[in-house]
Write a structure and sequence with these properties.
The chain has 457 residues and is an alpha+beta fold. It contains 14 helices and 18 strands. It has 2 domains: 175 residues, 2-Layer Sandwich (Nucleotidyltransferase, domain 5), CATH 3.30.420.10; 259 residues, Alpha-Beta Plaits (2-Layer Sandwich). The strands form 5 sheets. A 6-stranded mixed beta sheet has the order 1-4-3-2-5-6, with helices on both faces. Strands 15-16-12-17-18 form a 5-stranded antiparallel beta sheet. β3 and β4 form a beta hairpin.
């Protein structure tokens, strides 16, 4: 049985949070945004439920028809809590309060433990789901969902959280391999989302349609990273737009522009990233020329490749890595790869799992139809994400330390795009981007007025 306490004033709310923190216990915070469809970066908080381990629910109302309307400053005390506060989605919560410390992502905990997450809608009472369906054309529906139904949602989520966090094994895996996701990846993704992408509204509407254009807010659109795929490689889509795979050929990238007068978009791209990750993993010396060029010359025997030979070489390389065919004549790189994969696959089958570069364990039975090539591909994708995000986190910290106006605005597996302010030290920005190449991962840098007209610099 839960006990319910509705907070009436800002002073009462701050005192409650202070008292809970003095008890130094685990708290579960369940935020409800006013608009179930809007991006968290441009949403507002309707209600926050804070639940202690004695099952007392403290209701903080900010914009709901059945609660006192508290100012958001009531949560200032929340920012300085020393105990752990578990929330359904830390990235979404950070759009409300950009304070990452002591915040535990329940989805991250479940993902690391089980390899998947439970969809938040699983915990909705039926009336919530019905209202979302019936009033899907309306905004801010949560302001009208009956408060006691939102309380029921919070209760359902607490039960799920308490079961997960009451298991010591969950804490073990979080301490061993969860720090990267909870403390590095999530804050980076949140920062990129919050910065938004400046768009030419007419061109965005032309390429992505009227429905997607409804998500433009004050000239910006917002991507949304979903990191809980088995490999850790995030998908990134919102409002019907797949920001992780914006086509290069149809001109749609021209819709994305710099927010700064006289500013520019700068793209840093890891050269032959997949191959260099493999080479690093197996201890193969990194070539000084582009890796695809290096292998393509072996296939063709040419001293220099045409663009057609280069593209054909790329296809051949991935066929040799993941297809059924192997080089007709031995190539040292592939011989070392095949030997490494054979050992890796044997160990994985024996253990029933494998670990990513940063130590996150992936169970073999989490993967549909696990084959040698597929599992190896998953390992490389996980390495790709862990290394990229670690370097993005360093870049994000660097911008903050220098109080730069430039923003991280898009990450797509092997590249990052920044919106570069003309008031920042451009040479220092470019130097920092080039520093991402350390350790054998060369960077190519492109610049343009829009995402479609990037020129190598």
């Amino acid at each position: 049985m839960f006990n319910l306490k509705v907070i009436e004033t800002e002073e009462e709310g701050k005192q409650v949070l202070f008292d809970l923190d003095q008890n130094n216990e685990l708290l579960v915070g369940v935020p409800v945004f006013t608009d179930a469809k809007a991006h968290p970066a441009v949403n507002t908080l309707s209600v926050l439920f804070v639940i202690d381990m004695q099952k007392t629910i403290f209701v903080f109302g900010f914009d709901h028809s059945e609660t006192p309307q508290l100012p958001l400053s009531v949560l200032d005390q929340y920012d300085f809590c020393k105990g752990t506060i578990a929330v359904p989605n830390k990235k979404d919560w950070m759009h409300v309060r950009d304070i990452p410390h002591n915040i535990l992502d329940i989805e991250a905990a479940e993902f690391i433990r089980n390899g998947s997450v439970t969809d938040i809608s699983t915990f909705y009472p039926r009336i919530m789901s019905e209202m979302y369906g019936r009033f899907r054309q309306l905004r801010n529906v949560n302001k009208s969902v009956p408060l006691m139904k939102l309380v029921e949602f919070a209760e359902n989520f607490w039960e799920h959280s308490a079961k997960l966090l009451g298991d010591s094994q969950t804490w073990d895996v979080l301490q061993q391999s969860g720090a990267h996701i909870n403390n590095v990846a999530i804050p980076v993704y949140q920062n990129i989302e919050a910065n938004g992408l400046k768009v030419d509204e007419e061109k965005f509407r032309k390429h992505f349609g009227e429905k997607a254009s409804r998500n433009i807010v004050n000239g910006y659109v917002y991507s949304q990273y979903h990191p809980y795929n088995i490999t850790g490689r995030p998908s990134n889509s919102f409002g019907g737009v797949n920001y992780a795979a914006l086509p290069k050929e149809d001109g749609s990238r021209e819709a994305f522009v710099s927010r700064f007068v006289a500013g520019s978009l700068i793209l840093a791209d890891f050269e032959s990233f997949h191959l260099r990750l493999i080479a690093d993993l197996i201890g193969y010396p990194q070539p000084s020329i582009p890796f695809h060029e290096y292998l393509g010359r072996m296939y063709s025997g040419a001293a220099h490749l045409t663009q057609e030979q280069y593209e054909e070489g790329k296809r051949t390389t991935f066929t040799y890595l993941y297809g059924e065919h192997r080089p007709t004549s031995p190539i040292d790189f592939f011989e070392k790869v095949y030997n490494w994969i054979d050992t890796f696959w044997a160990d994985t089958q024996f253990e029933g799992s494998f670990k990513t570069k940063l130590g996150r364990e992936i169970q073999l039975d989490w993967i549909d139809n696990p084959t040698k090539a597929k599992v190896f591909s998953y390992l490389i994708q996980s390495y790709e994400s862990e290394l990229s995000v670690t370097r993005l986190s360093d870049l994000y910290t660097f911008f903050g330390l220098h109080a730069f106006d430039s923003k991280l605005v898009l990450y797509t597996y092997d590249s990052v795009m920044i919106d570069c302010s003309p008031t920042d030290d451009r040479k220092l920005v470019l130097k920092k981007l080039n520093d991402m190449s350390l350790g054998g991962f060369p960077i190519r840098i492109y610049e343009g007025k829009n995402y479609n007209s990037m020129v190598k610099i």
